[in-house]
Amino acid sequence: QVQLVESGGGLVQAGASLSLSCTASGRNFGNYAMAWFRQAPGKEREFVASLIKSGEKTYYATYADSVKGRFTISGDNAKKMVFLQMNNLKPDDTAVYYCAAKSGSQYDYWGQGTQVTVSS
């Protein structure tokens, strides 16, 4: 069982940066794949970025095309945290951002979300 809590959202102008954090509680955090999703008003939730274990101490990151080159996902196993650094934010990035975790094929654990609003 994993509990996830996001923080770091806010209101910024286009072109600014924000950093989101996700703090996890529970056991075997390092064995989970972690990801960020977002949901804009009136739209379905969409994948943003993921961090997946590929070796003993190796992880690889994947990104949605819409954020590639602007967002960076990273993690700290010792602190049980995952981060999303968002640069050059655009109004289209406005959404509630969710942290998610999975140990199998689907993301089973979700945080409550944090609002990111980007004004033009």
Structural descriptors:
120 residues; 7-stranded mixed β-sheet; 4-stranded antiparallel β-sheet; 0% helix
Structure overview:
The protein has 120 residues and is an all-beta fold. It is built from no helices and 11 strands. It has strands at 2-7, 10-13, 18-26, 33-39, 46-53, 59-63, 71-76, 81-86, 95-102, 109-110, 114-119. Strands 2, 4, 5, 6, 9, 10 and 11 form a 7-stranded mixed β-sheet that branches. The model has no long low-confidence stretch (mean pLDDT 94).
- Structural class based on helices, strands and sheet pairing: mainly beta
The percent range for helix content is under 10%
Oligomer: single chain
Largest sheet composition:
7 strands, mixed
By DSSP (H or I, 4+ residues per run), the number of helices equals: 0
Order of helices and strands: EEEEEEEEEEE
| Shape label | globular
What is the count of β-strands? 11
Mean pLDDT: 94
Rg (CA only): 14 Å
Q: How far is it from the N-terminal to the C-terminal residue, by CA?
A: 40 Å
Low-confidence stretches: none
Proportion of residues in extended strands: over 45%
Helix-strand blueprint:
Layout: E1 2-7, E2 10-13, E3 18-26, E4 33-39, E5 46-53, E6 59-63, E7 71-76, E8 81-86, E9 95-102, E10 109-110, E11 114-119
Parallel strand pairs: 2-11
Antiparallel strand pairs: 1-3, 3-8, 4-5, 4-9, 5-6, 7-8, 9-10, 9-11
